[in-house]
Amino acid sequence: MTEISITPLTNVIGAEIRGLDFSHPFDEETIAGIQEAWLKHLVLVFRCGPISEDDQARFATYFGETVGARSAERKDGGDRRLMVISNIRENGEPIGALPDGELMFHSDSVFLEKPLKGAMLYAEELPSTGGNTLFASMYKAYDRLPEDLRGRLEGLKGVNVFDYETQVKAGRFDRASAPHAIHPVIRTHPETGRKALYVNRLMTEEIEGLPEDESDALLQTLFEHAENRNHVYEHVWQLDDLVMWDNRCTQHARTDFPANERRLLRRVGIEGDRPF
């Protein structure tokens, strides 16, 4: 087993890992140690030097089947196993996805029946300031709900929708045409058994079965609670950082950054299961 150091970044979420060489495959004990740390800390920050596309893609396979890029998310002709998140443009078109500015709190792909289990993001080019990623623990968000509100949420389901062509909230949508999925407002983690709040500001449009005004008011309360800074770790990116998060029990958001400065990160998703 490779000897690694694990340093918690907050007392709620996040840990930094050093001591790994990504240019070589990891043995089973090392992978098990990383998996244990991932389930405990939810977000892992690897600071282990440059990581190639091949090495990042191989690392992701240790944790499940991987999800790469749609054609619109990888216009640079590169490895489709990895999605590019970048504001770099060629011939006026972004070379990747989610190019510019601030991005509201969300969990990835919750508008699908089987959202991602997790994802990992590698920093290849960064602006001089901004573009930080905020990670929030939905375990803590659930644990800190008032008892009466927690009871009210049991059995409720949220309708989640997202438009691939934009990075803002979809607004009222047509269920017949917009990609959407209905998931529990409170999700149970399939590996730890812990409960997590499972609605997010960017993609959760309504609570199924509630009148519109009641649904909107409840969601606004939950969004503000989920995004409480006491649940959050803010990651200030450094070049060659690889960050891996558990998408089943976290949300993340992006801070604004200068539009005239280049930002390029590579993402690999890990297939998940239907939330329950």
Please sum up the structure shown:
The chain is an alpha+beta fold and 276 residues long.
In the CATH scheme, what's the topology name of the domain at 5-101 and 114-126 and 236-247 and 257-270? Double-stranded beta-helix
Given helix and strand content, the structural type is alpha+beta
Shape: globular
Oligomeric category: single chain
Percentage beta strand: 25-35%
- The whole-number mean of residue pLDDT values reads 92
The CATH class assignment of the domain at 5-101 and 114-126 and 236-247 and 257-270 is Alpha Beta
Describe this structure in words.
- With 276 residues, the protein is of the alpha+beta class.
- The chain has a domain at 5-101 and 114-126 and 236-247 and 257-270: Double-stranded beta-helix.
- 18% of the residues lie in helices and 29% in strands.
- The chain is built from five helices and 19 strands.
- It has helices at 28-41, 53-61, 138-143, 147-153, 212-226; strands spanning 5-8, 15-18, 43-46, 66-67, 83-86, 89-90, 93-94, 103-106, 118-125, 133-137, 157-161, 180-184, 186-188, 195-197, 204-207, 232-235, 242-246, 250-254, 264-270.
- Strands 1, 2, 3, 4, 5, 9, 17 and 19 form an eight-stranded mixed beta sheet that branches.
- Helix 1 (28-41) links the parallel strand 2 (15-18) and strand 3.
SSE topology:
Layout (H helix, E strand, L loop, with lengths): L4 E4 L6 E4 L9 H14 L1 E4 L6 H9 L4 E2 L15 E4 L2 E2 L2 E2 L8 E4 L11 E8 L7 E5 H6 L3 H7 L3 E5 L18 E5 L1 E3 L6 E3 L6 E4 L4 H15 L5 E4 L6 E5 L3 E5 L9 E7 L6
Parallel strand pairs: 2-3
Antiparallel strand pairs: 1-2, 3-17, 4-19, 5-19, 6-7, 8-18, 9-17, 9-19, 10-16, 10-18, 11-12, 11-15, 13-14
